[in-house]
Write a structure and sequence with these properties.
271 residues; 2 domains
Length: 271
């Protein structure tokens, strides 16, 4: 069963499987584990042949919808390296959205050459509360690349040295003006993004929402409608988790979301 909007996977043995994917955005805060989904956007077959095109085209609609629904909300958009391209950054700027985006050296040779060659590039070392030593390098107002020389971004690199001697390199572009004393600030934003992985995907797939389960495809839009319903249910759970003492007490007593949902289902059946 499939529709014109299904994603298609063609297998070597000649068979084809179909699926529906969505691009999700969630509100995250570094100090809170609850996340609030915003404007989930279905990825359509027409969005492109490659995964990157699909996500970029769905992202265009998502951001426009997000701004229409929340015209005054102050937001910092935190995304991975797929997002640090000129058309996307220009759209973020046009919609008055601040940003912290991953930027890999391999994808941004011009930019990293510029940072390395500019005398204003600064290096700062500091140790955070967890004892991790950060060697930062940053530059404000660097051109994203030769083709988009007018598009200036601020670049931050971080070599993280754990006490055990492991070194990991991270790099981002942002529109926050960087200085020696605010370099940990973008890190907090990025860490908050990792919450998305832990909280959203885990909750949707493993804690009883069965997001990956196929509840039905329908003839036209049923699967997309079901996806939106599931995200609404997830939103309500998250609001309760963040703001409702009764829910928090029930969750603590049940010890896990899965157990809580099972008990709720049993209670409503017996009622
Ligand atoms: Zn379909």
């Amino acid at each position: 069963m499939h529709c014109p909007q299904c994603g298609e996977k063609h297998h070597r043995n000649g068979t084809t499987t179909y699926d529906h994917q969505m691009l999700g955005a969630v509100l995250v805060h570094p100090d809170h584990s609850a996340v609030f989904p915003l404007a989930p956007e279905p990825i359509l077959e027409q969005d492109g042949a490659r995964k990157n095109d699909c996500e970029r085209n769905a992202a265009k609609r998502l951001l426009a919808d997000l701004r229409r629904a929340h015209p005054h909300l102050k937001l910092i958009v935190v995304e991975d390296g797929l997002a640090s391209n000129a058309p996307h950054i220009r759209q973020l700027q046009a919609l008055d959205l601040r940003f912290i985006l991953g930027a890999k050296q391999n994808d941004h040779a011009d930019l990293f050459d510029w940072v390395a060659a500019t005398p204003e590039t600064r290096e700062v070392e500091l140790t955070d509360a967890e004892g991790i030593r950060h060697r930062f390098r940053y530059l404000n107002g660097a051109p994203l690349n030769i083709a988009n020389f007018d598009l200036e971004v601020n670049v931050l690199e971080d070599w993280e040295h754990t006490p055990g001697g492991k070194v990991t390199h991270f790099s981002w572009v942002t529109d926050f003006t960087l200085n020696d004393s605010n370099l940990m600030l973008p890190m907090r934003g990025v860490r908050a993004r990792w919450t998305v992985e832990n909280e959203t995907f885990n909750a949707l797939e493993n804690q009883g929402d069965h997001f990956e389960h196929d509840f039905g495809h329908g003839n036209n839009n049923l699967s997309t409608v079901l996806m939106h319903l599931m995200m609404l249910a997830f939103l309500i759970d998250q609001i309760q988790q963040r703001g409702c003492r009764l829910f928090q007490a029930a969750l603590t007593a049940a010890q896990s979301k899965t157990r809580l949902w099972r008990k709720c289902a049993l209670a409503s059946t017996s009622a």
